[in-house]
Design a protein that fits this description.
The complex is a heterotrimer. Chain A is mainly α. Chain A has helices at about 35-50, 50-75, 90-105, 105-115, 120-125, 130-135, 140-170, 180, 185-210, 215-240, 245-250, 255-265, 285-305, and strands at about 270, 275-280. The two termini of chain A are about 30 Å apart. The model of chain A has no long low-confidence stretch (mean pLDDT about 80). The model of chain B has no long low-confidence stretch (mean pLDDT about 90). The chains are: A mainly alpha, B alpha/beta, C alpha/beta. Chains in contact: A-C, B-C. The interface between A and C is large, with 43 and 48 residues.
């Protein structure tokens, strides 16, 4: 489906001193459809430029990464046993990266709301879908554009500071076994950055498509996010009576828990803290569940956009 | 039936209407003006949604603001969309009717009567959420007339109606005006307004620019002499003959059509009386003979653009 | 030459048949699409845009099949919807150039063309302000601009004068007239305001209950049979009517002081008869012209 249209030659203008400013059509080049969705994603991301809240939250994210870097600096000279992360020498760095990803999950959620709640709902409110769908775009292009806008923003929010931290460790702790102990850390980082980005993107496009205003989508998604946290917390408290060893699987069933859990699987570390040992969760439950939720979110969005009438009767 | 006396209304610094004095009698009156002229402010004052910051507004002898006695006799069909999507047409009109105090014994019949008047008998059982624009408009009119008001205020009442619907609705309004009600129509669709009434109220930048019969107003606009276009095979010779008339101010020819000429005069009546003789004596064959600006649109343009 | 051809189109929504065996050719130039609500105009437009997969029948726009080449068709079509639609948070320039990019224009071309089209649509300095602050007239203009930006060969205008005051309406109609006069873009206008259509369109298509009931050029449709003349008198003048009838002229219609007369078919100088008769009875003639059927009459007759 390729419709590159090469530019037509314009006829040479006559030699009149008064320019002819009457209507003329555009006969220039039209690009292929391949990257059409990127136009949509880029427009979404440009909107963030003016959003003060976004910049403040991003700064906080960077701050957390920075603080972790500082912590690494101070603890690099301590013997293994005193390491506040509870990890041993081998897993110290991997653990740091996992912890910092986890720690910024809440901030990422806020950024997700900022970029994503208005993604489709603002278009719903302003009937902008009429414009989109009358252009040579498919609904898939539109949805992909919106999804990638959220995904890419969140991915960069995690990946960029992680990369900086990684480079810092690379230059400072090579002798402490940074690369040697975990050669795959770079790729784990990328994969881990994709997890919250993909989940938020999928669920938010679904929430946004079904909402008539950005605020409604925010409220809905926030209730989903925190609601799942509360419910799993209650189940944990009632059924397992706070017993971490046996009940931690339940905690991994909330939205944030799933993101945490999958990241933990990717990084492949166990966390030992004074309360309990958080083992690497089994992927059998949470991975399909997470994937299922993503698919559900995207399908919900697609279903809703399909129902939009371009030309109203 | 509606009277404004030096009424002004402003919103902090922004002026809505400025020192307007007028009386709107029973019958059909058109409220016209460019966007931002103050028409909506005026309608809000008349329907009692706002109080004038200065001056007085009276409807049926009383001030309309928060006055249920006036509301009972006032019907209002606003331009904005209503959002009673979950109700059916019948339910909505019944609710509105009940709110105006129609006793429940007669309410049901009256609802059916009014729904039939607006042509919604077939669709009134469906939920408003599924209505097209035209259907919503008809239901809006139904709720405005259900209590048989003495004063009916209509803001763009034909919005969304197809030509058949427009005709039907025009008839409903004309019937009400003929029955002695005071009907005020605010619209931008001048040719439609023209078909309904010659009584206009023209607003511009918050001030009342003109009020009365549109043709009378036209005859008073001195700065724009009457234009009359004539199409004939012998345009130049005919033009030369008309120049003998002292009240013909100028003659123009059309660069695209040599058979057309346009002349200007301050005294159309004298011209219309004298012209036939010129034609008959000279043996001219006249195909077209009309005054392009003796209509509402021209009057509107001249008054608003100066 | 037709720019779009629909053949034997049948469209069903569940059990409801919206359009049954519809065939129409949309000619070049500016065409008005008329019909009562529910006539199937929307279905027709959606089929032309390549959105609807019909139950049977086919459609072609610029030689492209509507079933399979929907995207290519939409590349060549611009749409000005009736409802307000704008992308929040943008000003006119960003909005229109965004629309151009969505249609595939390179970013720099889109921006340059956006300015050109906004200029043409009469939006001056206001183009740098946020779209949400615009008046109705300005919103209509940017809707038109976003439809034109990618250089379509056909634009759909749905109620283009919606909400405009008389001055705005004049300007919008003049704009539409200019665009179609440039011969580079074909226009299809859907409106309930028949005088708007009369002023801008060369051709008319009238639909009713999913079928085409009348179609043709404005000129042809408005022809009257025989010699008919509309006469405006100063006041209602019954003796004038009688005098004319004495000479073999029939009165076809009267509204107050406006009359429509049918003259004998061989009449060459109706004006002379009118002036003489008026003079004889002492009436004042204020104007006369060859009668054309108004679009409203054509419409009402077509949907009877």
């Amino acid at each position: 489906m390729d419709f590159d249209i090469p530019p037509k030659q314009e006829p040479k203008p006559q030699g009149s001193p008064i320019a002819d400013l009457s209507y003329r059509n555009y006969n220039g080049e039209l690009k292929t459809r391949g990257l059409r969705w990127w136009v949509i994603s880029w427009a979404m991301m440009k909107l963030l430029k003016k959003n003060v809240g976004f910049w403040i939250t991003s700064a906080l994210v960077f701050l957390i990464y920075f603080l972790n870097g500082v912590q690494l600096y101070f603890t690099s000279n301590m013997p293994a046993g005193m390491n506040p992360f509870g990890g041993d020498e081998k897993t110290k760095f991997t653990l740091t990266f996992f912890q910092v990803n986890s720690g910024t999950n809440l901030l990422l959620f806020i950024i997700a709301l900022t970029v994503g709640s208005g993604a489709i709902s603002a278009d719903n409110k302003a009937n902008a879908l009429l414009v989109y769908l009358s252009k040579p775009l498919t609904k898939a292009d539109y949805l992909l554009g919106k999804w990638m806008g959220i995904f890419f923003t969140l991915f960069l929010e995690t990946f960029v500071p992680s990369l900086i931290l990684y480079l810092y460790c690379l230059t400072s702790y090579l002798d402490k076994g940074f690369l040697k102990n975990d050669p795959m850390l770079f790729f784990k980082m990328i994969a881990a950055a994709c997890v919250p980005a993909a989940m938020h993107a999928s669920l938010l496009v679904g929430a946004s498509a079904w909402s008539k205003a950005p605020r409604i989508a925010s409220v809905f998604y926030a209730s989903l996010y925190f609601g799942s946290l509360v419910v799993t917390g209650m189940v944990f408290g009632i059924v397992y009576r706070g017993d971490f060893e046996r009940g931690q699987e339940v905690l991994k069933l909330s939205l944030s828990g799933m993101m945490d859990g999958i990241q933990q699987i990717i990084y492949h570390v166990t966390i030992k803290n004074p309360m309990a040992t958080l083992a690497i969760p089994s992927p059998n439950l949470i991975v399909p569940l997470a994937v299922g939720l993503c698919v559900a979110g995207i399908a919900a969005a697609r279903a809703k956009i399909n129902a939009v009438e371009v030309v109203k009767g | 039936m509606i009277a404004l006396e030096n009424a002004s209304r402003w919103y902090q610094q922004v002026i809505g209407i400025n020192d307007v004095t007028c009386q709107i009698p029973p019958g059909m009156t058109a409220l016209l003006g460019p966007n931002g002229a103050g028409k909506s402010t005026m309608l809000k004052l008349i329907t009692g949604q706002l109080k004038p910051t200065k001056g007085r507004v009276q409807v049926l002898g009383q001030e309309p603001f928060a006055n249920p006695k006036v509301y009972q006799k006032l019907g209002y069909c606003p331009e904005i969309e209503n959002n009673y999507d979950e109700m059916t047409g019948y339910e909505f009109v019944t609710l509105m009717g009940a709110m105006t105090g129609i006793p429940s014994a007669t309410l049901k019949n009256r609802v059916h009567e009014v729904v039939e008047m607006v042509g919604m008998t077939v669709n009134a059982g469906r939920k408003i959420g599924g209505y097209s624009k035209g259907m919503r408009q008809r239901i809006k009119v139904a709720q405005g007339i259900i209590h048989d008001p003495d004063v009916l205020i209509l803001d763009e009442p034909m919005n969304g109606l197809d030509p058949v619907g427009r005709r039907e609705m025009t008839k409903v309004f004309l019937d009400m005006a003929a029955a002695g009600k005071c009907v005020v129509v605010s619209s931008h669709i001048l040719y439609e307004v023209e078909a309904m009434t010659s009584n206009i109220l023209l607003m511009h930048r918050g001030r009342l620019m003109a009020q009365g019969n549109v043709y009378h107003i036209r005859s008073l606009i001195d700065s724009h002499p009457h234009r009359i276009t004539i199409t004939t095979s012998d345009a130049r010779r005919l033009a030369a003959k008309t120049l003998d008339l002292p009240y013909v101010l100028g003659v123009k020819f059309d660069s695209h059509d040599p058979r057309k000429l346009e002349l200007e005069t301050h005294s159309p009546h004298l011209f219309y009386s004298a012209f036939p003789d010129i034609v008959l004596e000279g043996g001219f064959v006249v195909e077209n003979y009309e005054s392009p600006d003796n209509n509402l649109e021209a009057v509107f343009r001249y008054l608003v653009n100066g | 030459m037709a720019i779009a051809v629909i053949s034997n189109l049948v469209v069903r929504y569940g059990t409801k048949t919206a359009v049954n065996d519809l065939s129409v050719e949309v000619p070049e130039g500016c065409t008005g699409l008329l019909g009562p609500n529910g006539a199937g105009k929307t279905t027709l437009l959606k089929t032309l845009l390549g959105f609807l997969v019909p139950t049977s029948g086919s459609g072609q726009v610029f030689g492209l099949n509507t079933r399979t080449d929907g995207l290519k068709i939409r590349q060549k079509i611009g749409m000005m919807p009736e409802m307000d639609c704008h992308i929040p948070g943008m000003n006119a320039v960003s909005f229109v150039s965004y629309a151009g990019e969505l249609a595939g224009m390179p970013a720099s071309d889109a921006l340059q063309r956006a300015h050109e089209v906004l200029e043409y649509c009469g939006l001056g300095e206001a183009r740098y302000r946020n779209v949400e602050t615009y008046s109705t007239g300005m919103k209509q203009r940017i809707k038109l601009a976003q439809a034109l930006v990618h250089g379509p060969k056909l634009i759909f205008l749905d109620e283009p004068t919606n909400g405009l005051d008389p001055a705005g309406r004049d300007e919008m109609l003049a704009l539409v007239r200019n665009i179609s006069a440039s011969r580079e873009v074909n226009v299809l206008v859907s409106s309930h305001l028949l005088p708007d259509i009369e002023r801008t369109c060369d051709n008319v298509i009238v639909m009713r209950s999913g079928k085409i009931v009348r179609q043709g050029s404005m000129q042809d449709l408005r022809q009257t049979s025989g010699v008919q003349v509309e006469v405006e008198m100063y006041v209602e003048t019954p003796p004038f009517v009688q005098e004319l009838e004495r000479q073999g002229v029939t009165m076809l219609n009267q509204t107050a002081n406006l009359y429509r007369f049918g003259f004998p078919d061989d009449t060459k100088n109706a004006g002379k008869i009118i002036f003489e008769s008026a003079k004889r009875v002492g009436g004042q003639v204020r104007g006369f012209k060859p009668a054309t059927r108004s679009l409203e009459d054509i419409f009402l007759e077509a949907i009877e």
